[in-house]
Amino acid sequence: MRIRATVAAVSGALALSALAVPASQAADAPSYSKEDVRAAAQAARQADADGPARSTFAAEDTGTPYALDLSFSNVKINSGKPIVAGISNQVTVPVTYTVTHEAGMDLNAADLMIDVEIYRGTTYEDATKTLFGDDWPVCTPTSSTTDTCKGTIDVYPDFELVNADATTWKAGGYAIDWNDQDPESEDIDWSKVGFAMQDGLGSTKLQRYSKLTVNASPEPVQKGKTITVTGKLSRANWETHKYAGYSTQPVKLQFRKKGTSTYTTLKTIKTNTYGNLKTTVTASTDGYFRYRFEGTSTTPAVSATGDFVDVQ
């Protein structure tokens, strides 16, 4: 399992400082983490900026990574669905993709690190925030030059998200071939490190988990009398780690007659400043009332569980 850490690349070496790593994870984890590898990628890019990437290990290439013959395609994050996170529970979603590479390359080799991540920012190279999987992907060869890889994106809303993160995230991928070198070494020979990075691999939405309640009363009620239907629409606040009302949002009041399976929309109302809902209808027949929210770009659709009213 990989460890989340804060790192920096200084003069081509890795400065490592793991943050809040549980002892149980630390005991099972490798000596370097996913963020350590990101630091190495940063250092590789910096080294590459000093001269063109080369494809040989010639002596004059010392300090410059060579370009890996490798590319990503067919990236799919969470099966094409948005990633929805609440206020505390870890969320893990699948990531699948195809990697095309030079013949004979073993993507599961211990000294080759590869992954697809999601990020916020203008470009992958200059990402302001990145989310990735706790475990390394598993790649299965489909030919001598292609692999199908399966990984994850792991999201921790209790410490790594803010509300502004509810937006569209882009996808990028990288690969580093250390060629038996130690990523933690201060004497890395970058001319023996292969590096590839690719942006524009797709996108996904990260959304704030939503909740919706309903209560129809009185129960039972006489036919022709007034039924008052109340409820509340709320969503995860990743900064207070509580659920807060979602204000001024259109919500449908729907009804399903007893013995049927389909809800019909009666009217659409808006939540108030606190996310509360309240409206009235005339009692006509036994059935279930519910509220239905169709969602926004930052918040998924949600339906309340139907509340049965006995009309006498």
UniProtKB/TrEMBL annotation:
<keyword id="KW-0732">Signal</keyword>
<protein>
    <recommendedName>
        <fullName>Calcium-binding protein</fullName>
    </recommendedName>
</protein>
<feature type="signal peptide">
    <location>
        <begin position="1"/>
        <end position="20"/>
    </location>
</feature>
